[in-house]
Amino acid sequence: MKSLIALVDKLIGTAPDDRKAELEQLRAQLEAELESLGGKKPESNDVQSAIAELMRVARSLGEENKRLLAELARIKEREENTAKALEERAKQERQKQIDAAVEKLVAEGRLPAQNKELIEKWRALFEKDFDAASEASKNLTPLKASSDAPSKPEGDRSQSRKSLRDQVAELFSQQTN
Hints:
With 177 residues, this protein is an all-alpha fold. The chain has one domain (2-138).
């Protein structure tokens, strides 16, 4: 009987808080029965019923443990999914921030819109260290606006070369005369 009480004590130590009261009650019943026997050998029915009750409690605790472990696994999975979603959202926000910074540099004329390679280099700088790239971009001077000079197509430079030749020839002829 004392070994049954020791077994109940072990169960009490590992039981969830809401089940401990039930086990402590069972322990008190076992102690009361032990005292009532007063040194007499317990009847086998009493021992059998006590063992059966302990087995029922042990099974119940095992089922409760499995249920709690399953719930813990669901909570952990939900937290991991939430963390992944937050990380993805942060990554998207950072990309929007980088895109906005590069677009602002192009709109301000600090980066030429047609130079895709340079734009990608700045995008990579912003991705690597946003704060440092922001500071560095403040030092970029705006490119000269095309409104200062007459607009000429890029491919047609023969006109400017011809007039330049004419000007050099005219200056040369003036000096020799």
